[in-house]
Amino acid sequence: MADMSPLFRRSAAKSPQDRLVTLIGKPDCHLCDDAQIVVGKVCAEVGVPWELKDITQDPQLHDQYWEQIPVVLIDGAQHTFWRVDENRLRKALTE
């Protein structure tokens, strides 16, 4: 029987449909528009759902991210801000 202690157990990779990319931005933001194109493209390619959140509609998001938008979260953890690198995002979602 294999040793299943935490030191030897590998965490199972999440399947694409179990992941979530969140793009946090605001209207009339050219960097946000650019990020939306990249996030939409990469998520479609790898089959990961994504959502768009508007800091002008959420005071908590505004307070937390207003100097960094656009911000990309993967499964709730910050992945990047300002500029979204297509290859880096794809790698983060497929590893």
Describe the structure.
- The chain is an alpha+beta fold and 95 residues long.
- The chain has a single domain, classed as Glutaredoxin.
- It contains 3 helices and 4 strands; from the N terminus they run βαβαββα.
- It has helices spanning 30-46, 59-65, 86-94, and strands spanning 21-25, 50-54, 71-74, 77-81.
- The chain has a 4-stranded mixed beta sheet, with helices on both faces.
- The radius of gyration is 16 Å and the shape is globular.
- The chain starts with 20 loop residues before the first strand and ends with a helix.
- Residues 1-11 have low confidence and may be disordered.
- InterPro entries: Glutaredoxin-like, Glutaredoxin-like_YDR286C, Thioredoxin-like_sf.
- This is Glutaredoxin.
SSE topology sketch:
Layout: E1 21-25, H1 30-46, E2 50-54, H2 59-65, E3 71-74, E4 77-81, H3 86-94
Parallel strand pairs: 1-2
Antiparallel strand pairs: 1-3, 3-4
Helix pairs in contact: 1-3
Biggest sheet strand line-up: 2-1-3-4
Backbone shape = globular
Q: If you consult CATH, what is the topology?
A: Glutaredoxin
Distance between the termini: 28 Å
Structural class determined from secondary elements: alpha+beta
Weakly predicted, low-confidence segments: 1-11
Q: What would CATH call the class?
A: Alpha Beta
The total tally of domains equals 1
CATH architectural category: 3-Layer(aba) Sandwich
Name the beta content range: 15-25%
Residue share in helices? 25-40%
The number of distinct β-strands equals 4
Overall pLDDT metric: 89
Specify the number of helices: 3
The CATH homologous superfamily name equals Glutaredoxin
Biggest sheet details: 4 strands, mixed
Radius of gyration: 16 Å
Please trace the helix and strand order, writing H or E for each element. Answer: EHEHEEH
Pfam families: Glrx-like (PF05768)
Organism: Streptomyces regalis
Protein name: Glutaredoxin
InterPro entries: Glutaredoxin-like, Glutaredoxin-like_YDR286C, Thioredoxin-like_sf
